[in-house]
Automatic annotation (TrEMBL):
Protein name: Predicted MFS family arabinose efflux permease
Gene3D superfamilies associated with the record: MFS general substrate transporter like domains
Upper taxonomic lineage: Bacteria, Bacillati, Bacillota, Bacilli, Bacillales
GO cellular component: plasma membrane
Keyword Chaperone applies: no
Domain named Major facilitator superfamily (MFS) profile: residues: 13-389
Keyword Transmembrane helix: yes
Length: 402
């Protein structure tokens, strides 16, 4: 694909950006509304509602390591169009589900295609973004996912309350089908390498994982582990402190802060290198978590949301860019799948372990623990990535190099 040097906001970038936004709108909308549907309409239990969430992530984590190999064998364009088509069909099928067993089976099936399509989209957008603007471009791309954290639940709850579950599903299906049709306009560059014709039975560990991504993956795991406390427990914690009705404001503050700093952090990554963004971002992130542990008022909740939005919202796209840039271009699919396998595992394991912490002690202690983990992640990052002198990534690295 021919690139516009230095230009990020091109037609193909918009198509990929909105596709990613729609995918995560569907993901977060279902994450919000399915527990209510299971409890009220399917007469399920809280445990079964949790299982429906877990099984989706489980299938995504299982398939994620194979995504890079699938992209390599079938090509980016074919993988994108097939996986997004099956993601669309999976979304439509929620309309017809009337039993818990069928819902769990669909959640597992849906998670497979979510894993593959989100991996290939990042690989495609990495080719679209000019080499000198990776930090900025991937930062804006990651913003589409983070904004869906706010808009997904907001759309789901609004439509569900005003209309019905089926109307919500049909609305989500319509949105994702529009995104799918727009994907046909993307001209995707393919890498012709010898391994792309290899047989599946000759797969090795190298075909599933990109070992050069492990350093950024380890840092991403710790980052995601702590973020599981926000995804899984912020609503319950807010309820215990009497500010449950303001949880949506927390995510709005999170999103506004993240969008406000994105132009600066992306440019800083491209001109001064990742360390200039990562270190202060971890400090903001940890400070927000520690502040959250002391939360008794709405103002404290919102300030914590701003700090976490600046920190978490800035560091994740940086780690994602580092992961992709650490591998050769033809291995970008493997790099992406490896990073998100480790990252998603951090969220899954974090939700489980932190649930034990909150049950045995308190939510306040849970957020203190998470803040300490993020402070601990700073020297881990320095040891694995930031302190490496003269380190060079692939040709798509940021302008500044040691």
């Amino acid at each position: 694909m021919e690139k516009n040097h230095g230009k990020i906001w091109t037609g193909p970038f918009f198509v990929a950006l909105f596709n990613n936004f729609f995918l995560f709108i569907v993901y977060y909308a279902l994450l919000t509304i399915l527990p209510i549907y299971i409890l009220n309409d399917l007469n399920g239990t809280e445990g079964q509602a949790g299982l429906a969430m877990t099984i989706f992530m489980l299938s995504a984590i299982i398939v994620r390591p194979f995504s890079g190999r699938i992209i390599e064998v079938f090509g980016k364009r074919k993988t994108l169009l097939i996986s997004e088509l099956l993601f669309c069909l999976s979304t439509i099928l929620y309309v017809f589900i009337d039993s818990l067993s069928l819902l769990l089976a669909l959640r597992f099936f849906h998670g497979i295609w979510f894993s593959i399509v989100t991996t290939v989209l990042i690989t495609v957008v990495n080719d679209i973004i000019p080499d000198s603007r990776k930090g900025t471009g991937l930062g804006y791309f990651a913003l589409s996912m983070n904004l869906a954290v706010v808009f997904g639940p907001l759309i789901a709850l609004t439509i569900f309350q005003l209309y019905s579950y089926k109307v919500l599903i049909l609305g989500l299906a319509t949105v994702i089908v529009i995104g799918y049709l727009s994907a046909f306009t993307l001209k995707v560059s393919e890498y012709s390498i010898e391994t792309s014709t290899a047989k599946w039975y000759r797969m090795s560990l190298h075909d599933l994982f990109e070992k050069k991504v492990i350093p950024s993956g380890v840092v991403g795991f710790l980052t995601a582990f702590a973020y599981a406390s926000i995804m899984s427990y912020i609503s319950v914690y807010a309820e215990t402190r009497g500010v449950f009705e303001s949880v949506s404001l927390f995510f709005i503050a999170f999103a506004i802060a993240m969008m406000a700093v994105r132009p600066f952090t992306g440019k800083m990554y491209d001109t001064r290198g990742p360390n200039a963004v990562v270190y202060p971002s971890f400090i903001f992130y940890a400070a927000g978590l520690i502040l959250l542990s002391t939360m008794h008022t709405v103002s404290t909740l919102l300030i914590a949301g701003v700090l976490i939005g600046i920190g978490y919202g800035s560091v994740v796209p940086c780690l994602q860019a580092l992961a992709i840039q650490s591998a050769p271009k033809h291995r970008s699919g493997h790099a992406t799948s490896t990073f998100f396998t480790i990252f998603d595992s951090g969220i899954a394991i974090g939700a489980f372990v932190l649930g034990i912490v909150s049950a045995k002690w308190s939510y306040s202690l849970l957020y203190i623990v998470c803040g300490v983990i993020i402070f601990f992640t700073i020297p881990v990052y320095w040891r694995l990535i930031g302190g490496k002198k003269g380190i060079r990534y692939s040709e798509s690295v940021c302008n500044h190099q040691e």
